[in-house]
Amino acid sequence: MDESNTLLDINENLKLFQYKNGLNFGTDAYLLAAFTALTHRHPESSSKKAVELGSGTGIISLLCAAKKRFAKIYSVEIQPVYFDIIAKNTEINNLKQTVIPVCADIRDLDPAKISGEADFCISNPPYMTCNSGKRNLHDEKYIARHEVYGDIRDFCACASRLLKYKGKFCTVYRPDRLCDLFCALREYKLEPKRQIFVYAYPSAEPSMVLTEAVKGASPGLKLYRGLYLSDNREDCINNILSHDAQKIYESCSFADFVRN
């Protein structure tokens, strides 16, 4: 194994190569993969095509492929080191027929590069502007965290270009930048339709927000109850999950959560 990579056993019996100096698999990526299950109410959903924008290691694409949510998933990443890791991850998990790595800049991406328009776009985009936060010593991690190769407007513009009419765009983002997300979605004809705020525990401020937008849809947002990852601060410190979070981690799906 390349010394710059680590290999982990993760959810859904997947193995994941990670770049040692890059961002590691985290809660936001897993919850976004679980959030995509809300869009699958009909059997034909599993025959549709998805695109993950800014894929990193490809973990969200891999999780969706393991759950057979899409027939094809184009895993788009601009950094060659991560593009190579996505290719390794698809091979080691026998998912080469479903997950297709694409090395491209989302600002230039068009449907021709993914064999036509998509039914779904998924993205865990960089949360931080280039002039905020400490500059990481490793470019790979800095690029993953900061808007070096596109801000939230660029990601929304790309999703709008790639999606069919009524196609869906699922994102995870920071609550303190929610206004930026909504403005960008509306600018590119992506209407927010469903949303869940995620909290470390009940008295904490929300740490992330999951949003589903639909291209060309009419206004009307369904705001679900918040997800508390732990029942209290002490459980959070000790990494003890709440009942709701445990069920989501077991199923990689929010379907039961939104029904209760």
Explain the overall architecture.
There is one protein chain. Helix content is 30%, strand content 27%. The mean pLDDT is 87. Helix 5 packs parallel to helix 6 (178-187). The protein has helices at residues 27-35, 59-66, 80-92, 139-145, 152-162, 178-187, 233-237, 243-251, 255-259, and strands at residues 5-10, 14-19, 49-53, 72-77, 99-103, 118-123, 163-173, 190-199, 206-215, 222-223, 227-228. The chain has one domain (5-225): Rossmann fold, CATH 3.40.50.150. The chain has nine helices and eleven strands. The longest helix is centred in the N-terminal third of the chain and has 13 residues, at 80-92.
The percent range for helix content is 25-40%
CATH topology: Rossmann fold
CATH architecture, by name, is 3-Layer(aba) Sandwich
Order of helices and strands: EEHEHEHEEHHEHEEEEHHH
Based on Cα principal axes, name the global outline. Answer: globular
How many strands, which pairing sense, and closed or not: the largest β-sheet?
A: 9 strands, mixed
> Approximately what portion of the residues adopt beta-strand conformation?
25-35%
Calculate the mean pLDDT score and round it.
87
State the separation between the terminal residues, measured CA to CA.
44 Å
What oligomeric arrangement do these chains adopt?
single chain
In the CATH scheme, the class would be: Alpha Beta
Count of distinct strands = 11
The CATH superfamily is Vaccinia Virus protein VP39
